[in-house]
Amino acid sequence: MYGARLSQHSWKVNLIRRINEAVPKFTDIFDEDTFYLTAFLVVIGSFMKRCIAEFLSRKDVIVQAPTGSGKTLSYALPVIEILMKAKKKWKKDEIGAVVLVPSRELAGQVKAVFEAFLSVAPLRVILFVGGRKVRKDVVKFKIDGQEGRPVGDLLLSFTFFRGNIVIATPGRLQLLTDRKEMDLDLKACMRSLEVLILDEADRLLDLGFSTSLSSIMDNLPKTRRTGLFSATMPERMEELVKAGMRNPSRIVVGGEEQLLSSSGQPEKAFRDQPPSETVPFSLKMYYAVVPAQAKFLALVKFLKKHKTNKILVFFNTCRCVDYFGSYLEKTFKNSTSVLLLHGKKQHQRQKLFDHFQSLSEGMLITTDVMTRGVDIADIDWVVQFDPPRQSNWFVHRCGRTARLGKPGNALILLMPNEEGYADFLTKSLNVKLRRLNIQCPEELCLKMRDKLRARAANSREILELGTKAFVGYIQAYLLRDCHIVCDFKELDVVNLAYCFGLLRFPVMRELRARDTSGFVRSSVNTSSIPYSNPKSEEQRQSIRQERGNVSKKCRTNRQKTDLNKSKKRHGRSVIDARDLAELDNDYRLLKRLKKKKITKKEFDEQFAPD
């Protein structure tokens, strides 16, 4: 069936045979006709062979393996094998496999892995992710491919389809499935679906895709094979397993827990590295405890020491990435590349990501958008400025380095009130951290504070960004799941404000009960700090002038209102006194009449004079 293709790639077949000699049991998984698909592989992990074998024996599989262990290959190979054996030729309007991933960056990498093998296989792969119009996805899926055909005809015909393997984010695939955009019926295209893959499944749930996943699975054939791949297995994952899988085989890389096999009998989880390891064994992890005021200084000192390495730096918020990242860009401008990437940089993300991929050294300052699944070559260090919002994300952040057995290092910066976090990770995630000392003398901390304040004093953009970054930091701190070991009440907010180089302490509802009287405000008049952009500054001055006029008018109106109220009060008091005097006079007349000191005629004349 594939002889013509194999004849064009005879060198690959010879390479495969040499691999066969090194890994003789691998031929039990693939027949010789399709074994050429592994020609690109150098090392096949034991758990990968187990996963492929289970998949090809028509079983659903659940694979729990550390990040960077090669999970993508462990499902890409059997997916291609299953589709090639299911039909001699797949129609262009048939989708045989769907791979769901949590982010567009990971989707692009998974697509690249499939394309490496599909260059010699009669299958096509297509990508559906957010960040572009739905219409473009539909047009891309329905492209005819006939040269010279007008675009208008392509949009009208909708006959020729271009994807047997769909790699998508859940939100976009649900949108395309539920809506018949431009007469595309994706549900009908998936009637022949053989395989569903959920990659980084725990992250899919963390991002709130559970509703989308349920909707998608309801539209897929019940006879499909399903693979669930993840680095962690939280309890809520079992609901997804029950809803979308049938007696799955479980493969745990690291761990000795008892699990059920596809036959329902208990068996020991398949293990491919030392027990109780949830991170790659080649990864070395460190933590450093520094005062709140010295935290950014410690990061800068560490980065200067390792500026010839390739480093990934994690912050918890986009504003912290922009604020501290802008300082790092200026600091390392002449020595190494510093790139900033987060979820709000939608249009720049892929370009920045590709650029960092090509670097042999440099720094990528990012948020948790880069936490999961994304494979960046040869990361030397992963540095975490803060503990992540969810503790299990710590493992996934660290997993960006030490991939596929390569050495790697990870560091997390902690404040004194967070020192117990290292022990917490050891007990809850079975990871061991070594303490790293970073010296931060007080005089250097003050110099760093003054540098950050000087930047803010010269640019209103930086002043406002720093304030927003601090506010976002506090709000993110309150969302952490480890409140006991990272007690917010013990957080040194005053010195943390110095760490951000704030000129003034912001008014925040979250800090209303905290004593911030120790904060020494800068002598700089913040209202006089201009924007570096002339148009923005002109607009600010115009708004200030309008507010001043409104305030002046309000003061004038308030003064008039107060005067009128005073007059009314004074008038009422005068009237009330006159009435009382007349009443008193009438009372005296009445008493004199009763005592017969005056006559009735005299009383009438004085009581009601004409």
From TrEMBL:
The keyword RNA-binding applies. It catalyses: ATP + H2O = ADP + phosphate + H(+). GO terms for cellular component: P granule. PROSITE patterns: DEAD_ATP_HELICASE (PS00039), HELICASE_ATP_BIND_1 (PS51192), HELICASE_CTER (PS51194). Residues 52-251 form the Helicase ATP-binding domain. Keywords: ATP-binding, Helicase, Hydrolase, Nucleotide-binding, RNA-binding. Its EC number is 3.6.4.13. Residues 295-452 form the Helicase C-terminal domain. Residues 535-549 have a biased composition (Basic and acidic residues). RNA helicase. The Q motif is unique to and characteristic of the DEAD box family of RNA helicases and controls ATP binding and hydrolysis. This is ATP-dependent RNA helicase. It comes from Trichuris trichiura (Whipworm).
